[in-house]
Write a structure and sequence with these properties.
47% strand
């Protein structure tokens, strides 16, 4: 569902990570998706693989989901 949201032009907000417990990550990425009439917030982080120039070597992890 999140993938379809992005493929259809859904907005992804890149936010600098400022929380002390998450300093390992420079950014997190927010998506706000409508599911069955509900607005749902997904917070994700991007884990780049061994070759940062290869987008197929990266993984997106959902770290938080809740109603907007």
């Amino acid at each position: 569902m999140v993938r379809k949201f992005v493929e259809n032009g859904g907005k992804i907000d890149e936010k600098p990570e400022t929380r002390p417990d998450r300093t390992r990550d420079k950014f997190h990425y927010d998506l706000r998706v409508t599911i069955d009439g509900r607005r749902v917030y997904f917070e994700t982080i991007l884990m780049v693989g061994k070759t940062p120039d290869d987008p197929d070597d990266s993984t997106i992890f959902v770290v938080s989901v809740h109603d907007v």
